[in-house]
């Protein structure tokens, strides 16, 4: 039985990772022979190749050539384009002067075209992307891909026949300087008063699935429309409320930010994979992932078309709690529904605890030990994640130049692999048993990781608090969660308590805890019905299925979280590890055999935990050799 559990655990974790890898792939690019009403990446690539032959910063010859080319393309599409000049902002002027260039006679110039609707009295939809690039980068992804996708989407919309409302195509200028083109349009252009919704396309990298990561305020109706529209796109929807919530807290901005600040409905789409291509000379048409172009373009086409043909545009109501599930559909509900789901999860947890108590004699003390085991993993995960991260290079305020920032972006895939393995090692160590590995040894490893993270990464109060909790729990005599049910239910209760706290203050972000906690509680309740002693294959099946399906969803979500914030907040993967623990905990082999001796399967798991942790640190250290500082070849925006 012990070897069976170990095999189930490793197989379920591997299957979850495989599911995440498969479902985070980009869709197949559609050929030029695709139906005229569909989006085709191959057709869009013709525009990308013309635009991204060389860098096109504002004021350059190539910028003017691309502007003329796009004017011609918009004319071919029947958009009757016009030019709108706008002044440079002080921040844009400073950026240009910092490069040693003159700003005399410079301005941003937007290209604006209109596809009229049948009813000119209706509010219009804006479909936009920016056509300038940073110096030193051809910008095939950022944002030639967005412009090309807009043009291909317009062609497909025309092929579908007239819509009731009009479409405004805005190819903005100066986004890389200070969003100056979009600022000029939304502040000065006569059409600004008629805008009812906006679809924007961006990129921060050269590949990966395109995510809808920003909306206007009160987005429930917008999410309903996006969820139905994106299901028709190749690759399906890719978005969640957590991404929208987190992005609002970040200092970043795109052209869409100006529209959202004015209360307009709409969506902001971008892909952020292959981060080495961001603002880099390597961002060429040949290097661009055409699957990413297909995904962002298809989502933009279907969303814009749905807005154009909708009886009424979305209005600001409340923010939805939602997430896509493997790109197949978008599950969504109102913020207040989270309380009901938490209540259901607590009832299921209570039922599982009742069944476990009658079958195994489970005590509340065993549940408390499981709870503290989850706390130990959360604290240890944050610490080892930060330690593995700093082995790859500077972090936080120590990234003090754009050159270092772009170098670290090139190292991001190494960081993700290193941090992910380090956190996995901590989770496997918990499952093997802290007493078996050695309480003092684990406390020493956590303390050493905290020192390393502080010396190389600087003072971080979150890391130090996490280290203090993890060290104290490591040294706590008798604090081991020795029973399967105690460990499992304790982890679920911790997840649900975190869910209650987040639900109270940020319900949009609570879906991670609420949905995972509900899935884990349901698996536990079902296991209690099938066989509360957890001695049969069938009794472990709910945990296996939950680990593979929900764990795969969490792993895929963790990938996008790390791409977004992992450079500065790698400890986010420690939270993902805790959530997976709440699903997979009963699959760990029992600590003792019938004679009371440590089972060989547990020794195997402990050895695997150490190997995985060491490998993760090694991969992070290898980032410096794979992407050395001397190879920096990017230019500041």
Largest β-sheet summary: 7 strands, mixed
Percent in helix: 55-70%
CATH secondary-structure class of the largest domain: Alpha Beta
Taking all Cα atoms into account, the compactness measure Rg is 26 Å
Number of strands: 9
Transmembrane segments: 337-356, 368-392, 412-430, 437-456, 462-478, 485-506, 512-532, 539-565, 571-588, 600-623
Signal peptide: 1-20
Protein name: Peptidase M28 domain-containing protein
Domain Peptidase M28: 110-303
Q: How would you characterize this protein structure?
A:
Pfam families: Peptidase_M28 (PF04389). Keywords: Membrane, Signal, Transmembrane, Transmembrane helix. It comes from Brevundimonas intermedia. This is Peptidase M28 domain-containing protein. InterPro entries: M28_fam (IPR045175), Peptidase_M28 (IPR007484). The chain has two domains: 272 residues, no CATH class; 293 residues, Zn peptidases (Aminopeptidase, 3-Layer(aba) Sandwich), CATH 3.40.630.10. It is built from 23 helices and nine strands. 59% of the residues are buried. Helix 12 runs parallel beside helix 20, helix 13 packs antiparallel against helix 15 and helix 21 runs antiparallel to helix 22. The chain is globular, with a radius of gyration of 26 Å. The C terminus is likely disordered. The chain has a seven-stranded mixed beta sheet with strand order 1-2-4-3-5-7-6, sandwiched between helices. The longest helix has 29 residues. With 637 residues, the protein is of the alpha/beta class.
């Amino acid at each position: 039985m012990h070897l069976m559990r170990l095999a189930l655990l490793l197989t379920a974790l591997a299957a979850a990772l495989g599911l995440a890898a498969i479902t985070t792939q980009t869709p197949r690019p559609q050929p030029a022979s695709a139906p005229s009403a569909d989006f085709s990446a191959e057709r869009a690539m013709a525009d990308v190749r013309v635009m991204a032959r060389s860098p096109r910063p504002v004021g350059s010859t190539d910028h003017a050539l691309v502007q003329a080319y796009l004017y011609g393309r918009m004319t071919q599409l029947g958009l009757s384009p016009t030019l709108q000049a706008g002044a440079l902002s002080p921040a844009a002027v400073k950026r240009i002067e910092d490069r040693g260039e003159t700003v005399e006679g410079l301005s941003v110039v937007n290209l604006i075209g209109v596809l009229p609707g049948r009813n000119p009295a209706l509010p219009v939809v804006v479909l936009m992307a920016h056509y300038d690039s940073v110096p030193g980068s051809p910008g095939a992804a950022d944002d030639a891909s967005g412009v090309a996708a807009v043009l291909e989407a317009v062609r497909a919309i025309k092929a579908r026949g007239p819509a009731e409302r009009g479409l405004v195509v805005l190819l903005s200028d100066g986004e890389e300087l200070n969003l100056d083109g979009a600022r000029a349009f939304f502040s000065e252009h006569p059409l600004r008063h008629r805008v009812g919704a906006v679809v924007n396309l961006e990129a921060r990298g050269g590949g990966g699935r395109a995510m809808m990561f920003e909306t206007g305020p009160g987005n429930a109706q917008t999410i309903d429309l996006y969820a139905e529209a994106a299901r028709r796109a190749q690759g399906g929807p890719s978005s969640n409320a957590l991404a929208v919530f987190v992005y609002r807290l970040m200092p970043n901005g795109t052209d869409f930010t100006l529209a959202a600040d004015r209360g307009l409905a709409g969506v902001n789409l971008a892909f952020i994979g292959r981060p080495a291509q961001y603002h880099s000379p390597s961002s060429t048409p040949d290097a661009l992932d055409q699957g990413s172009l297909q995904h962002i373009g298809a989502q933009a086409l279907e969303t814009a078309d749905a807005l154009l043909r909708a009886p009424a545009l979305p209005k600001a109501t409340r923010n939805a709690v939602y997430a896509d599930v493997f790109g197949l559909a978008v599950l969504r509900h109102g913020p207040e529904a989270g309380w009901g789901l938490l209540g259901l999860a607590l009832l299921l947890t209570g039922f599982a605890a009742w069944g476990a108590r009658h079958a195994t004699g489970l005590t509340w003390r065993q549940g408390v030990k499981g709870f503290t085991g989850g706390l130990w993993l959360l604290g240890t995960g944050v610490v080892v994640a930060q330690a593995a991260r700093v082995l790859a290079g500077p972090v936080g305020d120590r990234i003090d130049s754009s050159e270092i920032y772009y170098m670290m972006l090139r190292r991001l895939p190494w960081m993700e692999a290193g941090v992910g393995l380090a956190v996995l090692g901590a989770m496997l160590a918990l499952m093997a048993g802290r007493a078996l590995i050695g309480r003092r040894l684990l406390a020493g490893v956590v303390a050493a990781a905290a020192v390393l993270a502080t010396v190389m990464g600087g003072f971080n109060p979150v890391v130090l608090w996490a280290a203090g909790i993890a060290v104290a729990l490591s040294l706590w005599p008798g604090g081991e969660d020795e029973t399967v049910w105690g460990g499992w239910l304790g982890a679920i209760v911790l997840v649900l308590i975190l869910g209650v706290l987040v639900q109270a203050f940020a319900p949009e972000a609570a879906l991670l805890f609420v949905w995972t906690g509900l899935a884990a509680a349901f698996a536990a309740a079902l296991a209690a019905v099938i066989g509360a002693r957890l001695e049969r294959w069938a009794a472990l099946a709910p945990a296996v299925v939950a680990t593979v399906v929900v764990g795969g969803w969490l792993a895929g979500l963790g990938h996008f979280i790390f791409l977004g914030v992992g450079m500065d907040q790698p400890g986010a993967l420690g939270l993902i590890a805790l959530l997976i623990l709440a699903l997979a905990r009963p699959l760990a082999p029992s600590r003792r055999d019938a004679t009371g001796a440590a089972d060989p399967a547990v020794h195997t798991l402990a050895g695997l935990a150490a190997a995985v942790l060491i490998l993760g640190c090694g991969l992070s250290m290898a980032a410096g050799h794979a992407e050395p500082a001397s190879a920096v070849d990017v230019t500041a925006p």
